[in-house]
Amino acid sequence: MAQHGVHDPTTIDLVSRRPDGALVLVMVEQRPWVGSDQRLRELQDKVNAYLSFALDGQMQREFPGSSAQGLVLHLDCAQAPDETVRALLGPLRSALKPLGVSFEVQVLGQATLWSESDTQ
After folding, report:
1. pLDDT score of 120
2. Domain for residue 4, yes or no?
3. Rounded to two decimals, what is the model's pTM?
4. Are 1 and 13 in contact, with CB atoms under 8 Å apart?
5. How far apart are CA 47 and CA 67, in angstroms?
6. pLDDT tens digits for 29-72?
7. Number of other CB atoms surrounding residue 44 within 10 Å
8. How many other CB atoms sit within 10 Å of the CB of residue 30?
9. Position 92 in a domain
10. CA–CA separation, 39 vs 95, rounded Å?
11. For the chain, how many structural domains are there in total?
12. How far apart are CA 63 and CA 98, in angstroms?
């Protein structure tokens, strides 16, 4: 079985729907964050691929009735984001907000999501 994850921008790792109907596109990062430019580029490429999926009509075709409004991009990661990734999260969330898209981070094994204040 192929391993999906942030390193592979050609796949949507997981799609789920919340009880309120919001579509959640999940990306998975099982590797430790190492502060590298390459890892940051991989995350940016993955986010861009997810946005293309949502905004170019493919998501609507595969999930009728879905839209980018209310869409959640969700990053599941094995460990807390390092400083390099945290520096990207604030501007990323700000850029997505006008599209009606939110971005959240969940460190596996922790009950709470990383919030806006965790990235400042």
Report:
1. 46
2. no
3. 0.89
4. no
5. 16
6. 999 998 888 999 999 999 999 999 999 999 999 988 888 889 99
7. 14
8. 14
9. yes
10. 20
11. 1
12. 22
Structural domain contains residue 9? no
The residue range of the domain holding 24 is 14-119
DSSP 4-70: PSTT-TTS--EEEE-TTS-EEEEEEE-SPP---HHHHHHHHHHHHHHHHHHHSSHHHHHSTT--STT
Q: Report if residue 88 sits inside a domain.
A: yes
Q: Are strands 102-107 and 72-77 parallel, antiparallel or unpaired?
A: parallel
Alpha-carbon 104 to chain mean position: 7
The pair of structure tokens assigned to 36 is 């590298």
Query: Residue 72 and residue 28: Cα distance in Å, rounded?
Result: 14
Helical axes 37-55 vs 83-96, angle rounded to 10°? 20
Tokens 């990734």 locate to 85
- Interior/surface letters 85-107, b for 16+ CB within 10 angstroms, e for the rest: bbebbeebbeebeeeebebbbeb
